[in-house]
Amino acid sequence: MNLIYWDIDGTLIKTSRAGLYAISEAAEALWGQAVNFDSIPTAGMTDNFICREVIKAIADREPSNEEVAELCRYYETLLLEHLRSRVGIVLPSVRETLAALKECDDCRLLLLTGNSRKGAEIKLEHFGIAHYFDFSRSAFAAEHYRRADIARSALTVAESSWGRQEQHNFFVIGDTPNDIDCGKSIGAYTVGIATGAYTTAQLEDCQPWWAVDVLPAAAEFVDKIKAIAAKSNS
Predict the structure, then answer these.
(1) Which of 43, 58, 85 marks a domain boundary?
(2) Could you tell me the pTM of the whole model?
């Protein structure tokens, strides 16, 4: 089976920074101060990491896990409003590729994302593509701060659901070096798509299995996946 894990922001959709605006509003409500994201890395980072760095910037100390979780949960309540107030897009070829892969009996569409499950559901439902994914077997930030830990949780769920890793082809698709690195950490075929903050050349420096400027046409992408499946079965 081909287990195909997708990042969300910068890979499937662009939200015009709706998530960061929601986190900033949540921080102001809980901590009395909005935050300047210029000094906080966000591309490829988890919700937990970003919220921790926001609190550190405001409070000038290391926050507790409980404080981080509180900010993350508050942010989720504000997210949909910010998505609706900004112009976001589903990125080119995404709908067509997801639809084509959904028709493949030997493919499972999953998420491996730094978003919380709730945040991921809100974003993908807003853009009308949530129905393509198996949320129950996807991997989210949960209590994790690092994407590599999310990737390991994805592997654990996959093996409990479908059997040993060696029986399947794992693919991790994202727009940042962190996506590529976390995919490599579980032995996945990694696809770097330069539709986020990084160029194709920067993604190629991470030595992914495949790096592209934009998601290719659905037929090309499906053929690439199926070529690996055919190789595995030969």
Answers:
(1) 85
(2) 0.94
Q: Are residues 101 and 56 in the same domain?
A: no
End residue of a domain, out of 57, 85, 113: 85
Kindly state the tokens that stand for 183: 């995919």
Residues 76 and 154 in one domain: no
Place of tokens 């994407």: 147
Phi, psi of 17 (to 5 degrees): 65, 25
Contact 83, 126 (CB under 8 A): yes
Digit-coded pLDDT (tens) for 11-62: 999 999 999 999 999 999 999 988 888 888 888 789 999 999 999 999 999 9
CA 48 – CA 145 distance, rounded (Å):
5
- The count of C-alpha atoms lying within 13 angstroms of the C-alpha of 204, restricted to the half-sphere facing its C-beta, is 6
- Could you give the C-alpha distances from 208 to 16, 183, 211, in angstroms and in order? 27, 9, 6
pLDDT, tens digit (0-9, with 9 covering 90-100), for 198-222: 999 999 999 999 999 999 999 999 9
* Number of structural domains found in the chain: 2
Q: Whole-angstrom Cα distance, residue 107 to residue 57?
A: 42
Residues 110 and 234: beta-carbon distance below 8 Å: no
Residues 103 and 194 in one domain: yes
CB 14 within 8 A of CB 89: yes
Burial 116-144 (b: 16+ CB within 10 A, else e): bbbbbbbbbebbebeebbeeebbbbbeeb
